[in-house]
Design goal:
Layout (H helix, E strand, L loop, with lengths): L17 H20 L3 E2 L5 E3 H8 L3 H6 L2 E3 L5 E4 L4 H10 L9 E10 L11 E10 L4 H17 L5 E7 L6 H12 L8 H9 L28 H16 L5 E2 L11 E9 L10 E5 L3 H4 L7 E7 H10 L12 E5 L4 H11 L5 E4 L5 H11 L3 E5 L1 H6 L1 E6 L5 E5 L3 H5 L1
Parallel strand pairs: 1-5, 7-8, 12-13, 12-14
Antiparallel strand pairs: 2-4, 3-4, 5-6, 6-11, 7-9, 9-10, 10-11, 14-15, 15-16
Helix pairs in contact: 1-5, 1-10, 5-8
The protein binds one RNA strand of 77 nucleotides through helix 2, helix 3 and helix 12.
Length: 418
RNA sequence: GUGGCUAUAGCUCAGCAUGGCAGAGCACCAGAUUGUGGAUCUGGCUGUCGAGGGUUCAAAUCCCUCUAGCCACCCCA
């Protein structure tokens, strides 16, 4: 019978191995600490949502059409693996009655998201996001707050050379008129735009500003800017956000070409980049205001603003920045017993465990080999146990750094190790 | 979704052009060291050469298909 192929991991999905987790943990704990310091509370929402929640929200964008993990469950429900956190968070905000508590609800979430992309560097089909949302209030101070929160987190991770790009895309009052201006500007140029942009012109002209194809670039400079055509409320919010960022000492560039392709996004849009990165590919995180999202989901109109960041890229950058993350050894103490002493070894380990992390080497190998693995594990102490010693309820306790070895009674181990 | 490159021992890779015994380093195991780690030395184990098909007396090597990985494009709600 032919040997079966080993079953490999699923394409685009990766394991975060123990040695990587040390780095990830520092990134995640910093996220948690910073979010909590801004008064945000952790929330966990399901990885699976109704496909409709995502689809209605991302209506006929390429992204949803091609990159959503959709499936049917055994009950015939059309479900999807969440591709981002906000839609589910807004849903939870209503279903969990946070809309009846103090506003805004300040929430954060760290967890896996799924997009059916072709995998490549820094892009996985399962990836992780840190997501922060302030739902239920429209003060521009909250826009500045989530920006400051994100910036604080990235800086705490040692990513100091950041560039913050900022823009406003208006709202349902002022944007329609602006889009008409934009169409009017671009219509005579239609033939010179690349194919995708020709289609965008009538359907979603805002995306013309975001196009990176060389042939479309020359026309951007003279295109009308949305920030010159904001209604009074949006203009006031735009001023407010910038005033607050100035006061917080957060530098930003006004990027008039930073836009979003979905209607429910309103006003503030922002993205963080590493300072040296020229491309728009390497955003470390971004976000903005989505006052139309709750409505799109079928809930009462409710404002919200958020920040999201891909941890896969952030950890990569933190690592590249040379930050020393020292992985703790798997165990401080390793118990090495002669063959047949498993029960005694387990009991000794139990005693040591009250003071230190302990692993037992049960392998039927030579003592020399066990010493070597204890050394590789980075153990600080080794506890040696022979049959004669087990009968006397003592062990040899060896300090791996100094090489010193002393006989210790079992009962004294916790004290000796603490 | 499109294109380029790649796949050989547990890991990193050589071998492929021009078909002819399956290799190296690391890791692992053992010994030098009569139960005691790190350094050194000696020895040993490890293979469906990604999968399937084709050409050939003969395929890791040439051809086709598939799968997976990397890189770029695209996308990033």
């Amino acid at each position: 019978m032919p040997r079966a192929e080993p079953i490999k991991g699923v394409r685009g999905m990766r394991d975060l191995m123990p040695q990587e987790r040390a780095l990830w943990r520092t990134v995640e704990t910093a996220a948690t600490r910073v979010a909590q310091s801004f008064g945000y509370q952790e929330i966990v929402t399901p990885i699976v949502e109704h496909a409709e929640l995502i689809e209605r929200v991302g209506e006929d964008t390429d992204a949803v059409a091609k990159e959503l993990y959709r499936f049917e469950d055994r009950g015939g429900r059309h479900l999807a693996l969440r591709p981002e956190a906000t839609a589910g968070l807004v849903r939870a905000y209503f279903e969990g009655h946070l809309n009846q508590g103090p506003q805004p609800a300040r929430l954060f979430l760290i967890g896996p998201m799924f997009r059916y992309n072709r995998p490549q560097k820094g892009r996985y089909r399962q990836f992780f996001q840190f997501d922060v949302e302030a739902i239920g209030a429209e003060s521009p101070a909250l826009d500045a707050e989530v920006i400051e929160l994100g910036a604080t987190w990235l800086q705490e991770l040692g990513l100091r050379d950041l560039r913050l790009e900022l823009n406003s895309i208006g709202d349902e009052k002022c944007r329609p008129a602006y889009l008409e201006l934009l169409r009017a500007y671009y219509r005579p140029l239609k033939a010179e735009l690349h194919g995708e942009c020709q289609r965008r012109l009538e359907k979603n002209p805002l995306l013309l500003l975001d196009c990176k194809v060389p042939q479309c670039q020359p026309f951007k400079a003279k295109a009308p800017r949305v920030t010159d055509h904001l209604c009074d409320a949006c203009a006031a919010a735009w001023d407010g956000v910038r005033r607050l960022l100035d006061a917080a000492g957060i530098e930003y560039n006004h990027d008039p070409y930073l836009v979003r392709g979905l209607d429910y996004y309103t006003r503030t849009v922002f993205e963080f980049f590493p300072a040296q990165a020229a491309g728009s590919q390497d955003a470390l995180g971004g976000g903005g205001r989505y006052d139309g999202l709750a409505r799109a989901e079928g809930w009462p109109a409710t404002p919200g603003v958020g920040f999201a960041s891909g941890l896969d890229r952030v950890t990569e950058l933190v690592e590249a920045s040379g930050a020393e993350v020292i992985a703790a050894p798997a165990a401080d103490v390793v118990v090495l017993a002669d063959g047949g002493l498993d029960v005694a070894a387990a009991e000794v380990a139990r005693l040591c465990r009250t003071a230190r992390s302990v692993a037992v080497d049960y392998e039927p190998k030579s003592l020399r080999a066990k010493m070597r693995s204890a050394n590789k594990l980075g153990a600080r102490w080794v506890v040696l146990l022979s049959e004669a010693e087990a009968e006397r309820k003592v062990v040899q306790l060896k300090d791996m750094a100094s090489g010193e070895q002393v006989e210790v009674a079992w009962m004294d181990l916790p004290e000796r190790l603490s």
